[in-house]
Predict the 3D structure of the following.
Amino acid sequence: MKVGAIAGLISVVPLLAVLVLAGNLFLFVVAAGGAGVPSVVGGLGVAILVVAFFGLLLYVAVLSAIGGWLGSYAKSERII
């Protein structure tokens, strides 16, 4: 189970790269405008990205841990 969770954490790296690119878009919106709507949109966007990152991290790590557990179970029962 530990190996699956570690694999899941490693597989989050490409997701992090995509979120960083999306975060740059929101930061560009903040930098392009002054005070007012653009800064609110940028701040909200960064908050959404943080929540999305931790949600995806949990999702991928849990599913990878379950996959590792199922693989270990299948090996011990000689199913595979």
